[in-house]
Design goal:
Elements lengths: L2 H7 L1 H14 L6 H10 L6 H12 L6 H25 L3 E2 L2 E2 L1 H4 L2 H20 L4 H23 L8 H26 L4 H28 L2 H4 L5 H4 L5 H9 L2 H12 L5 H14 L1 H20 L10 H13 L15
Antiparallel strand pairs: 1-2
Amino acid sequence: MEFNEITKLFKTDLVQVEKVLRKNYWSDIPLAPGIGDYIMNGGGKRIRPLLLLISSRLCGLELSESVINHCCVVEYVHAATLLHDDVVDETTVRRSSETVNSKWGSDASILIGDYLIARAIKLLSDDINPKIFKAFGRSASILVEGGLLEFSHAREINVTEEHCLDVVFRKTASIMELSCQLGGLLADTEPAAEQALMEFGKNFGIAFQLIDDVMDYDGDPVLLGKPVGTDFKEGHVTLPLLYLYQKADSALKNEIEQFIKNEAIGQKELDYIVERMQEVKALEYSLDLARSYLSKAKQALNSFDFPAPELRAALEGIADYIIERHKPSKASLTPTTGV
């Protein structure tokens, strides 16, 4: 199933989710709804709410107020993490727009992130379900620990692939795992189905971030919604850079180490690194790994006989869509000279 077919199939549901998203961040303190509107109008495909909607329908549950509210929960948490990450990373552009911390300041970005988390907790408390609270608590802890893990190794190149994947799971995949899990829990499905959905969300989420990490080096800035090389210039060691470092000779290793420590590196250094990555097929390695995680995600869906099996195609279609997002820019294929 193509992604546009999936969004068309769930268009009515997503419209209702969007209405409730906006309704629930209203406050009589003007800054909250003002920045809230700015964030929600800033784009995004609502992948996490969509995962929840499809997962719940796959388990035989039709749209309800509770399903919509929990879609808002995962989207609020996701938005809050972006607001906080942008402060930590001093990011100025996201989804082709000025970030909240750049436009209103870091204090506002942190406070609005906190506000969205509070709104998420309020929505959870409106429909008390111990299993859902437990799932949310687990995922929230993993998510925050991911930020701490990444921060504790900031600008360090001597890490392992396992470390990179652990950060990817914690910071990105954990909330996608939760989105799928909540769909099953809301449908009161059996544990085997819940586990299958969690496995899909986890593996899908890891693949999603691995592809994003590749696109940071060779993606189209228009599609990315931010300049190419943002993570590299901020000193984040993601899998493509780590793979290059592990394959590099001592001279290139030294250059990479200096780049990571330098907060003033620019396009020339990025182009040089991308060319070196192409030589050792670092980007292809990361994409192949992403494909393997997508394969695991699809296999997980086939491990249980869901009440509405025809909707497996929707989750599989989203998995196919994220790999199709990778469209290398022509600029990334242009050879450069050394730095």
